[in-house]
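Recall the central idea of this unit: under ordinary conditions, the amino acid sequence of a chain determines the structure it adopts. In this exercise we apply that idea directly, starting from the sequence alone.
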Amino acid sequence: MKMLSVRQFRDSATKSFRSKEPLIIMRRGEVAGIFFPTPLDSIPFEFKKDIFVALTDSIKKKLHIKGVKEEKILEDFEKHRKTRRRR
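Accordingly, the structure predicted from this sequence is:
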């Protein structure tokens, strides 16, 4: 796994796209994007776990800043799910 800033990724995009190594692109300490070379089956489990943790932490921070609680998300999801069943 390799981490690059947006600037580093931009300056070496062609080289990065030829890479066999997954890349995490960071902007101001936050995940801006992830590049997975194909095939996806070859991504090690530990890397997938690291991605999951990084993304969930990022989402958690953003929800905390906006003051959104988990209960509200679950409530909205349940409402949406019930609406979809009626169609």
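The first strand starts at residue 2 and ends at 5.
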